[in-house]
Amino acid sequence: MSYQIDITGISVKGFHGVLPAEKRSGQKFVVDLALKVNGNVKQDEIKSVVDYSKVIDLVNEEVSGKSRNLIEKLADQIATRILREFKLVTEAKVTVHKPWAPITITFKDISVTVTKKR
Fold it and tell me: Per the residue annotation, which of 13, 73, 98, 116 is the catalytic one?
C-alpha cells in the first residue's frame, strides 16, 4: 500500500539569503511537503506510519538552523534528511517559499521546489 502525506504552511523564522541583512535579521519562510509513503497500515499505531509531527520538527530544525545562501539548498537538505530519517518515505517533494524576499518590485511569493526519490 502507498499513500501521500501533505503538510502545508509550516512557517519558521530563518536566516537564509545572500544579503548580510537577511542573515542578520532573518525572515519567515514557509515550507510545504508532499511525502509519498510505501507502507502497510496494519496497526492503528503511530509507530507503523510516518509521524508527521516529527517531520515538522525536522523542518523547523533545518529552517531555523544553519544559514544557507540559497533556498534551493535549504529545500534539498530538508528532502535529504526526510529520506534519511523516515525509511517509509519513498519520495519527498519540498517547496520552500520566501514571500518576504528583499526585492524592490512587488511580488506575491517566491518558491523553490525540490523532489528527491529513494
Answer: 98
Give 60-97 pLDDT, tens digit per residue.
Answer: 999 999 999 999 999 999 999 999 999 999 999 999 99
Nearest in space to 36 (alpha carbons), one of 114, 91, 85: 91
Sign of CA dihedral 53, 116, 93, 90: negative
- Let me know: does 16 contact 69? Beta carbons within 8 Å: yes
**Using N-to-C axis directions, what is the helix angle for 52-64 and 71-85, rounded to 10°?**
140
98 included as an active-site residue? yes
Q: Is 57 exposed, middle or buried (0-12, 13-18, 19+ CB in 10 A)?
A: exposed
Domains of the chain: 2-117 (3.30.1130.10)
Give the C-alpha separation, 18 to 69, whole Å.
5
